Amino acid sequence: MTTAHISEREAQAKAEIGHTTVGRGTAVGLVLAFCVIVLAGSLADGLTGRWAPAFSILSQGPEAAVGAWETQGFFAANRALLAKMDAFEEELEQESAVSGAVQRPFQWVLTAVGGAGNEQVYVGRGGWLYFRPGFDLVTGPGFLDPARLEQRRRSGDSWEKAPEPDPIPAILDLHRYLAERGIQLIVLPAPTKASIHPEPLAPGLDASVLPLHNPSYAAFLERLREAGVQVVDPAPELVRAARETGQPQYLERDSHWRPEAVGRVAGRIRETLCPPDPGSTHRSTPSRNAMAGPVGADLCVRPGSFARRPSAASHPGDLAALLRLPETHPIWPSQEVEIHQVLGPDGEIVEPDPVSPVLLLGDSFTNVYSDESLGWGAGAGLAEQLAYELGFAVDRIAFNAGGASATRRELAARLARGERPLEGKRVVIYQFAARELAVGDWTRLEYEEGEAREAPSPRDEALTVEARVEAVAPVPDPATTPYTQALLAMHLTDVSGTDEEELLAYAWAIQDRRLTPAARLAPGDRVELELVPWSTVSDELGSVQRLELGDPELWALEPWWVAEIDGMAQ
Amino acid sequence: MVFSSHLFVFVYLPLALAAYYALPRRGKHLGLTLLSYLFYGWANPAFMLLMLFSTAVDYICGQVIGEVEPEAERTRAQRMAVTVSVVTNLSLLGFFKYFNFGVDSYNTLVTHLGLDAWELDTLLRVTLPLGISFYTFQSMSYTIDVYRGRSAPLDDVIDFACYVSLFPQLVAGPIIRFNELADQLRERTHTVEKAARGAAFFCLGMAKKILLANPCGKVADLAFGAESLGFWDAWYGVTAYAFQIYFDFSGYTDMAIGLGLALGFVFPKNFDSPYHSRSITEFWRRWHVSLSTWLRDYLYIPLGGNRKGKTRTYVNLFLVMLLGGLWHGASWNFVIWGGFHGVLLAAERMRGKRSLYGPLPRVFQMAGTFLLVTISWVFFRAATLPEAVSYLQAMVGWGDPRPEAALLSGVILAPYYLGTFAVAALVTWAAPQTWDWTRHLTPAKAGICVALFALALVAMEAQGFNPFIYFIF
What we know:
Number of helices of chain A: 19
Number of strands of chain B: 1
Helix content of chain B: 55-70%
Largest sheet of chain B: none
Strand order of the largest sheet of chain A: 5-4-10-8-9
Largest sheet of chain A: 5 strands, parallel
Radius of gyration of chain B: 23 Å
Shape of chain A: globular
Structural class of chain A: alpha/beta
Helix content of chain A: 25-40%
Strand content of chain A: 15-25%
Distance between the termini of chain A: 69 Å
Oligomer: heterodimer
Structural class of chain B: mainly alpha
Shape of chain B: globular
Number of helices of chain B: 19
Radius of gyration of chain A: 27 Å
Strand content of chain B: under 5%
């Protein structure tokens, strides 16, 4: 019976598709049309040299694999080869003329006609756009749900280690470390847009249920507060403000809050630090110079001398940019907002103050209206508004993206390098985007103080080195991040051209939403680099999204900036 | 590498076809084997070694077994050879596919028993090699068929390596048994008619995958990713998944058949309008036919099939579906999915292969079968058992959804998704299947194929969302 059936299937197949009724002309025409379509894509890229960079990357594969094999064995060689193959494929797609020609018009049709976004952006009514991780936070499973935590812990692969999904131990570690030094931690989760303004997606939603939250959010706040951590949750106030003023608190086509919301949050932090005296009609103002005693008393004694200056800012929005619509045919106009730049006593925009008693750790919710690369102006971000509210400038460590670990890691790295980022600090405000609670890597860190360096590093000269890439931070698809730029960290060994045996260096990974040559590096590659001390570029690049290496051993190394890779300027 | 990728369509495919046709006849199988290893190794070069190992073992076992008459008594060496082949393939499959599942299940058990100290380290995770479920079954069928005397062993190792690694159907089927391809490995024709039919299959398969499966998959992903959802959203989500898995898998199969034709091979049918089925028994004659017939011939019949009484028949049906579920993936959800179908098949067998709703009009029988299959997809799609249960609760309106559930509608009810859903339903129930539609290729049909292919490629270049469900099996 089986044989008969197999014969029957084979015979049926041969009878049904082995014989086709088709005219010779139609058959030839169809085959030709098929070949033309496929070859058009190939030739458009292949003959115009667009394949050359990709094949150049692929040709490095064997050498990288051999290098990795010699030092780390078979699996490392396999990983190195696979990294080059992945990079080859990414480069092909990035450089493709076909892809470039059709992507934006097709997305325009999808969005303008079909009302759909893309993998990262969802479209609501009235041109409101939502960043997918924020949407997923609100609609998805509880981020503290044990099954969800376990699922995320097992999500790693040979490229990227699995994240530590539970935010609470990481925050409590920081709280304990700071508390031991008499420093108060204030946790500030920046709500996601869908929490505060869900109406464009759910028009009939009862406003009384706002803000919307992840099922674990209440438990998260409760567990932090039970452990003595002060939490400022701005969500209820932002909902109230939206209701009372009738004005949105978030930008329509950007993932961030509006300038008014930043001001409100700064005010709320001030109230937390300096609760109003019940017997006084005056609000107390923190003291810039107060360095002792409990927060809320001696910090709040002196009026400030900062002023605010209105200024206009206009931008299409990071989410609109992430949709990748045709630049010549935007569906929506740029949004205009009025920002309030904060001026110091000297009339200049207030700058972060390293000796301030308040340190703000933040992400792009801190940087928006302050970091001009985000497109919404400068001098009016959360740090500046805090300066206005508190009466003194605050210190700031902030990176766009990665709020779950980027700033904590930077703090730990500075401590490990013997810097004193917490000297004189009374309060640390830890701001992160609430979406990080569901998607961030909450790796627990050890805050160990290295030996203090009295003098700046002697390395203030540029170096030209040849080195082997020991490890390089994984780079995300530029289409998945709302930021147009990112830096990556690389660990270099087998270094020639300097006395150092190993180096930690940063380079551009993404510029203008395109992967750079450094993003194509893989462990095992040998590179020639021109390096300059990180301090020479830190002011300019200090807030850019950073893709880091996970190994804490590297944090004590002084970082360098890669000015050139293999003769190519960055 | 997946068919619906820039690399495959614009780089690999033209180079592979050009190389294949440029090679002399004697070199075609070697060329095809090398191209197939490149295709397979693109996912992970190390996986090539595994496939090479499986191929070598089965080739040697086939040689040891040699040519035998079906009725002749097998020697000890022949029995040993087929045992080595089966054990090796099942061990590979078992280790790579079920190691993680075994460790996780063991840890869950000891944790529930309060024996936390006995937990195994879960840091060691085994990566599932692409398509291992398909090529181990395929390769194993060779030695079994040779052992049973249904096929003669292949002397040429290149021909055998070509059969195991043939890239069109390597990673997601259809599972092609050796005796279905043996003749074609020795002799096959390359005609422009075959190539045209192949191009039509590939175009339509690509359109199914990109234009229908992907948008439906987005709706399904959102629905299954939500913590809480309303009654209608739950049904919309799971029905969208039913369309996604059908168009995804049958679209891939169409592309595989099309590529096979372009290389001169004729592969058997794998989907036969499964959602037209009027019973679960009929569904399994129409859905993933190459797997269901493989399971029947190499598992159900050896277990005794229907030859050992009614009770044993029901047990065999249930067992085969249970193992079929486990073949799809290592999780209790797949076991339940298989068991659910096993129970329904056994129940229908009790009624003489008639469905429980057999007396109803034809359209209601189809609706009833689709409903049961769709309910079973909940277990197939949900990440965990509690999530499946929670989803089923939403489908019966059990409990009030959280306010956050309202957000979901704002995304999945966008005109693009609703429109695609409607077209998917129309194609499922009102359009002819690829096999029939392309049998008589007219210029108009050729034009439609080309237009759909071009549109699908445009969408492919623009969409970031391009999963392929059966790659993980």
